[in-house]
Design brief:
The structure holds 2 protein chains of 2 kinds. By secondary structure, chain A is an alpha+beta fold. Chain A has 2 domains: 3-60, Arc Repressor Mutant, subunit A (Orthogonal Bundle), CATH 1.10.10; 72-152, 3-Layer(aba) Sandwich (Glutaredoxin). Chain A has 7 helices and 4 strands. A 4-stranded mixed sheet of chain A has the order 2-1-3-4, with helices on one face. In chain A, strand 3 (128-130) and strand 4 form a beta hairpin. Chain B has helices at residues 23-29, 81-96, 112-119, 157-165, 200-204, 216-224, 255-265, 273-296, 313-322, 336-351, 369-374, 393-402, 424-427, 434-448, 498-510, 539-554, 565-575, 581-587, and strands at 5-10, 13-18, 53-56, 63-64, 75-77, 145-147, 172-174, 181-183, 210-212, 229-234, 269-272, 307-308, 359-365, 389-392, 468-474, 489-496, 517-521. In chain B, the strands form 5 sheets. Chain B has a 5-stranded mixed sheet, sandwiched between helices. A 4-stranded parallel sheet of chain B has the order 11-10-13-14, sandwiched between helices. In chain B, helix 15 (498-510) links the parallel strand 16 (489-496) and strand 17 (517-521). Chain B is globular and about 80 Å long. Classes of the chains: A alpha+beta, B alpha/beta. At the A-B interface, helix 3 and helix 4 of A face strand 7 of B.
């Protein structure tokens, strides 16, 4: 489906008022993994907003990316509890396994590695999110295992 | 409706104010000034800069006085120890993220943050300098506006201006935390986005983050160049505002002083955009009557009504972006500035025996969109760029100061001739409703042979600061050649500020409106509130400038454009007749659709 059609469909579903902006943007990210220039312009047009307004909202939220992301977005919690429980080792394991640094996307566009502020799982750190799934009490070995599972998915 | 009075004390002084009043305004009533940065009389409340914090007895936290309404029995302290320390820290924190290279800044000497730093004697900066190197790269893509993020304190006055007053939202708040930035769509250069170039953001920026592209040095260079013949024109609204930047109160008329100062600066001829404002009325008035005839008598479908004025370049650019489907409604008349440029480098150059390529045309404008307009590719009908440089009223004030001219003490002088004579109809171009009034004074007389039926030619219904004004004038006892207008109610509408223009355009688009003629000015109040006018601006200041404009009009011996003897002369010796062949070549233009998305 083209971006334009996707936006039209989401507008149909969520409505044209200013309040619909968030669910529409979230819907695009779900399908296309990020908000392209084209997508933001289509949304602005459909909701009769300025393009800058849409970009303002999109750039405010960490989970609304405005640069291309992989199919699976990994977010490792970077706050202090997870840090003390070995966050660095987890990031290193992911980096070694996927051959990407924080902020980068794999060549096959399957994974993007990011960090996140507190995910609220301090009692079970270190923790990471892959898309909407939480993975607590990680070890480097366990992390690689999880990644392999995602890697096999088409 | 009766409002409840609320009693409170500010610094132990009792005061009663209406319910809903902010602490800031209650303090003002006691002649206590609380400093502000993000607050602005034209805009909604933001409460984000925090410099206006005050202490409220019994409250744990300091409150932003601009955003806190008064309550009964409240005790407020605007200058307690807690407030002073906090306020000084807030200014220091703002400065830590501000490029405080004040001596290199165009706003040096007229900056609200600089004033605060001076007031609080901020010496050594106690916080680390956090200005991002990337923000030090200025956006100079626009011929009108320079955006410098390193000076931005994110008060969001510009964002609110662009949204609330202008209905465009070219600028938005993007990102968050220490990455927060006032930005265009995807950080694109200003010239590549939907920006009307009106410069209203400049008028409200408390720092040097938004300023005009200035051409002061270029103009000095032209003046000093002996091979150049430098002609200057002055827009209607400049003469009621220039004084504000030179120590005079708002609303002072300084026409003669301005002419004198311009001569002292070394311009070879000092001429008047008011002359071409009168000329615009001849062209645009005739265009309106011709369109009415084509539409009402000939049933010509290409004669599009309502006709809309085209003097305001910010409004034109807005329309090209936002309502390209309505471009045929625009009058084809160039703005008075551009009519002047085209005539100066053809008729006038020949008359005074100067080669057009040796002539430099400078405009003094209340506007920054004029800087964009003069660079438009359509504005080269003389074979050269018709207007070379546009200076704002503010830039002219700077040149006058640089030249050491004591503005208050110089003798008044008259404009040079020809292209210097004008009528009262021209000077009111500077106020919202003015072009409409001027056009009606002339068109009504053409059609009926009589003056407009208003006391002293003052068409009150089109005056004033309402965002959208409507009026209807019955045309009676017309001359035989205009019989088709007998008994017609001429419906007109006027809007100023592009948010109001947008409302009006929606009405036109939906077919709900039944107007024949619409005047739009891009800036609040019309040109007198233009993006190139002295800073600060406020409803009161604009009201005073408007009063000055109408008193200038009332004091003119001639008050109808068609009676301007120089306009009559230019038609008889050069142009022929309004909408004639020469007019078509030099005084009219076309518009092009621009991208909105």
């Amino acid at each position: 489906m083209t971006t334009e059609l996707l936006v039209k469909e989401l507008v149909e579903k969520n409505g044209r008022c200013r309040n619909s902006l968030m669910p529409i943007l979230q819907g695009i990210v779900q399908k296309e993994h990020y908000l392209s220039e084209e997508a933001m312009l289509s949304v602005a047009k459909e909701l009769d907003l300025s393009a800058a307004d849409v970009y303002g909202t999109a750039s405010f939220y960490t989970f609304l990316d405005t640069v291309p992301r992989g199919k699976n977005v990994i977010r490792v919690c970077k706050t202090i509890t997870c840090h003390m429980k070995g966050r660095e080792e987890i990031i290193e394991a992911i980096s070694n396994h996927l051959k990407i640094k924080v902020g980068e996307t794999t060549h096959d566009k399957k994974f993007t590695l990011l960090t996140a502020n507190c995910l609220g799982w301090c009692h079970k750190g270190p923790v990471m999110l892959i898309n909407d799934e939480v993975y607590p009490e990680l070890t480097p070995a366990k992390t690689v295992e999880i990644l392999e599972k995602y890697g096999k998915e088409q | 409706m009766n409002k409840y009075l609320v009693n409170l004390k500010v610094n132990n002084m009792p005061v009663s104010v209406e319910e809903g009043t902010t602490i800031l305004d209650a303090a003002k009533k006691l002649n206590l000034r609380i400093p502000t940065l993000c607050n602005h009389p034209d805009l909604s409340v933001a409460g984000n800069c925090r410099v206006c914090v005050v202490e409220i007895k019994g409250a744990r936290l300091l409150a932003a006085s601009c955003a806190t309404p008064v309550s009964e029995g409240m005790e407020v302290f605007t200058n307690s120890e807690k407030v002073r320390i906090a306020r000084k820290h807030i200014v220091e924190l703002l400065l830590s993220e501000h490029n405080a290279d004040c001596t290199k800044c165009f706003k040096n000497g007229n900056c609200e943050l600089q004033d605060l730093a001076s007031e609080y004697r901020i010496g050594d900066h106690v916080f680390l300098d956090l200005v991002k190197p990337a923000h030090k790269i200025q956006d100079i893509s626009s011929p009108s506006i320079v955006k410098d993020d390193s000076k931005c304190i994110r008060c969001q006055r510009c964002v609110r201006t662009c949204h609330e007053l202008q209905g465009i939202s070219a600028l938005a708040v993007t990102n968050k935390g220490d990455h927060q930035k006032i930005s265009t769509f995807l950080n694109k250069p200003l010239n590549d986005v939907v920006c009307s170039a009106c410069g209203q953001c400049i008028n409200r920026c408390p720092t040097g983050a938004l300023t005009e592209r200035n051409y002061i040095e270029e103009v000095w260079k032209a003046i000093y160049d002996p091979t150049k013949f430098v002609v200057v024109q002055t827009a209607p609204a400049t003469r009621v505002a220039l004084g504000e930047d030179l120590g005079l109160p708002p609303g002072e008329r300084v026409t003669g002083h301005m002419v004198s100062a311009l001569k002292k600066l070394g311009f070879n001829k000092v001429l008047d955009t008011d002359f071409t404002a009168d000329l615009t009325i001849m062209e645009e008035g005739t265009e309106l009557l011709t369109r009415l005839k084509r539409a009402l008598v000939d049933k010509d479908e290409t004669a599009i009504l309502p006709m809309m004025t085209s003097c305001s370049p910010g409004w034109i650019k807005f329309q090209e972006h936002m309502y390209p489907e309505l471009l045929n409604n625009l009058s084809t008349c160039k703005s008075p500035q551009q009519m002047f440029g085209a005539l100066a480098k053809t008729y006038y150059a020949e008359k005074i025996n100067i080669k057009a390529q040796d002539m430099v045309v400078v405009s003094i404008m209340p506007c920054v969109a004029k800087k964009f307009e003069c660079e438009r590719s359509e504005m080269r009908d003389s074979g050269y760029q018709d207007v070379d440089y546009v200076l704002t009223t503010r830039e002219l004030a700077m040149m006058i100061k640089q030249a050491g001219i004591d503005f208050g003490k110089i003798e008044e002088e008259h404009y040079d001739s020809i292209l210097g004579e004008s009528t009262g109809a021209a000077v009111i171009f500077g106020a919202t409703g003015g072009v409409m009034e001027a056009a009606l004074r002339t068109a009504y007389e053409i059609v009926t042979g009589r003056e407009v039926p208003f006391t002293n030619l003052n068409i009150q219904p089109v005056r004033g600061m309402d965002g959208i004004k409507e009026a209807s004038i019955k045309i009676k006892n017309v001359k035989p050649e205009w019989s088709f207008l007998e008994g017609v109610d001429l419906n007109v509408a006027i809007a100023h500020g592009l948010a109001n223009a947008r409302q009006l355009m929606e009405k036109v688009k939906s077919g709900e409106a039944n107007y024949h003629f619409i005047e739009i000015m891009g800036c609040p109040g019309g040109c007198l509130g233009g993006g190139g006018q002295p800073i600060p601006t406020s409803p009161e200041i604009r009201k005073k400038r408007a009063e000055a404009i109408y008193s200038e009009d009332a004091g003119m011996p001639l008050r109808k454009s068609h009676e301007n003897p120089e306009v009559i002369e230019v038609y008889s010796k050069f142009l022929g007749e309004p909408l004639g062949h020469k007019s078509h070549d030099l005084l009219h233009t076309h518009y092009k659709p621009r991208k909105r998305y």
